[in-house]
User: Fold this.
Amino acid sequence: MRTMQSLASAKINVYLRIVGRRPDGYHLLDSLMVPISLYDEIHIAVALGEQRATSPGVTLAVSCDDPTVPGGETNLAYKAAALVCQEAGLQARIGIHLRKHIPAGAGLGGGSSNAATVLKSLNTLLALGWTEARLCQLGARLGADVPFFIPCRPARIGGIGDIVTTVPPLPARSVVLVVPPFSVSTPWAYRRFDELSSVAPASVPPWQFTPAQWPSREWLINDLERAVLPAYPLIAALKEALLRLGAEGVLMSGSGSSVFGIFRHRIAAEQAVTALQAHGRAFLVEPLSGPPEAA
Assistant:
């Protein structure tokens, strides 16, 4: 029996533009994504049978301490493990247990991060020797955000999320993350954005990333806010509250429901966490320069 304990980090989008749409309906993105110090814990146990068998036999079981998270074949961690077994031709019994700390349905990429972490962990645990590029290709088959979590470094994201260009680490900041007591459906948010496309605001020039700098406040843009905030006014209220409490800039992450504020001074950030706990789950986190084990 081989076992491994891994951390899967959350992410925030500090810039998110929707720049087009493919014929198959997938949206084309331009985004800056940053991993943050909020983690799920993933325990993996593997018992191998004959390796690289012609007709692999696989037994997979995924459990989770959060009853709202499915543990079966719809779970991205399950799909990731199944994909590894399929690609490697493995006969194995694999058990995965998730301890969830990243809120689901909050635009923080928890499920995608879990999937990427399973891909990387099994690659190490089974000594498969797959390159980061191959892991990214496999991740893209699981979900749009999964490739980002393979290198798990600050990155400019293009395509449907499958084009990942890492960028230098951003300066140290305290990030206050607030997750209200509801989730937002990602498919709904994109559908609503499409419905509003006929009343799009004036176009904004392409954003030019400046290495080792956070975007200025006017470039903290998330196109999905235009679709989500009218239906969820508490998200807009949380943004305003973070600004009043001293944040340099605020934004909704992904399709919501989470909101984050960037603080230069940790004491102000700690005070903001205390002030906002009554409105949802509030976390004080930091941006990461690399994956948890290297952070």
In short: The first strand starts at residue 2 and ends at 21. Helices lie at 76-88, 110-125, 132-140, 186-195, 225-228, 233-244, 266-276.
